[in-house]
Amino acid sequence: MKKSRRTFLGNSLALGIAPIIGTNPVQMLVNDKKNEKKLKILILGGTSFLGPHQIAYALKRGHEVSIFTRGKTIPKIHKKLFSKVEKLVGDREDNLEALKNRKWDVVIDNSGRKTKWTDDTAQLLVDQVGYYMYTSSISVYYPFVGDDFSENRSLVTKIPNDATEQEQPTYEYGVMKATSELATINAFGSQRSIIVRPTLIVGPGDRTDRFPYWLARLEKGGDIIIPGQKDEVVQYIDVRDLAEWMIRLLENKAAGIYNGSGPGFKMTTNAFIHGIHASYNSSVNYVQIDDLNFLKENSIIGIQPWVIQLPQFAGMSKSDNSKAIQAGLQFRSLSETVSVTKEWWYSNAVSQDRRDKILSGEQSFMKREKDILVKWQNRKV
Ligand SMILES: NC(=O)c1ccc[n+]([C@@H]2O[C@H](COP(=O)([O-])OP(=O)(O)OC[C@H]3O[C@@H](n4cnc5c(N)ncnc54)[C@H](OP(=O)(O)O)[C@@H]3O)[C@@H](O)[C@H]2O)c1
How many domains does the chain divide into? Predict the structure, then answer.
């Protein structure tokens, strides 16, 4: 099952090891010109969130795309483009037949959910494919303690013995991503592996309500709880920026490890909220709640992943994107991200039920917000 980021909350220690491959400096790989060499691209996955955006850009650049899935997830965005994509059907668990005896220039492994899956496909494809790109995550750095979140940081490759039950899912995901990276490099070597570690991905097709929450909340207006400090840092990556950059990395054969995070400047929570609200006309009154104990008592910790006060998440928004920028990662503005995500959110790609749940579902924070505000106003200081 796909782990929700919300389940990432916990506290912890982690074992780290030095990354196996170095971070070779990549000199100005910005190459956004029309692509000269057409690539044959295989995507393991491709039909959920990140995949359709990669496909859209790859086709626009003149590449050929094959996808490998079980055929269960029906694309909800860029649907028409899938008629131009070769569809290979199998299961990463136990059926890779469709991948045998074929050649591609590059493979993108988006659907890695188990280390064994990546191990198996990397071993199988090593003589059939030039480069293996693994879609990892910044969770390989869990717990996010300290300040250095460059690609040289140690990875979490084992769940510590004293990890609590609550933090188990967080560790499992981080360890799975880290060991899958190692499986990639083990098969393809550092010269033919491209590892991308995205931070929280936002935009059309998002399966989580993390970013849509703020759109819905700011549209509604009224008294709005902003948890945490005004100047806490926010990081996210627009799915289109990530997808397009990943394709350009492949075009440039830019072997190496990269954090995939944005924006391109230090954005505070305050700037993030005001930036989104600029797209709405609602009347708003922000109530900043920075009392960690109060936030904990009222289960507000982690309602939005950009505002996380727990020590083990303190560095989650400190992912260093300088190497990625040097290698061509570019950023859309927050307003562009908002406008396209809004359009998608109100399209028939999203069910009314999902939209309603944010406002009033059982898990809805918005539903609890009024009562929490009363408590906040009546608290003894
Ligand atoms: N969302 C975030 O904020 C975030 C942050 C950091 C990293 N990431 C990583 O980004 C990656 C992108 O995920 P995505 O869902 O957007 O990718 P995607 O390529 O759009 O879709 C995932 C694909 O996996 C396929 N799949 C699932 N189980 C399979 C199986 N047993 N065998 C074969 N195919 C299978 C699904 O198709 P079928 O169901 O039809 O098989 C689907 O096409 C993930 O690795 C995730 O860990 C995400």
Answer: 1
Task: Report the nearest atom of ligand 1 relative to the CA of 91.
Answer: 32
**pLDDT tens digits for range 154-192:** 999 999 999 989 889 999 999 999 999 999 999 999 999
Note whether residue 34 is domain-resident.
Answer: yes
- DSSP letter for each residue of 342-367: HHHHTSTTS-HHHHHHHHHSTT-HHH
Hey, what are 8's tokens? 């990432």
CA of 339 to the centre of ligand 1 (A): 25
Q: Is 88 in the pocket of ligand 1 (CB under 6 A)?
A: no
**Whole-Å CA distances, 28 to 1, 227, 324:** 38, 39, 10
**Ligand 1 closest atom vs CA 50:** 16
Q: Write out pLDDT tens, residues 325-373.
A: 999 999 999 999 999 999 999 999 999 999 999 988 887 888 899 999 9
> In terms of residue numbers, what domain contains 165?
5-374
Query: Which of these, 118, 158, 163, lies nearest to 136 by C-alpha position?
Result: 118
Separation of alpha carbons 184 and 108, rounded Å: 11
- The CATH number of residue 200's host domain is 3.40.50.720
Q: Give me ligand 1 centre to Cα 326, in Å.
A: 27
Is residue 380 one of the residues assigned to a domain? no
CB burial class (10 A; 0-12, 13-18, 19+) of residue 2?
exposed
Residue 214, sorted as left (phi over 0), alpha (psi -120 to 50) or beta, turns out to be alpha
pTM of the model: 0.91
Domain presence at residue 50: yes
The answer as to whether 379 is a domain residue is no
- How close is the Cα of 280 to the center of ligand 1, in Å? 32
HSE on the CB side for 70, CA within 13 Å? 8
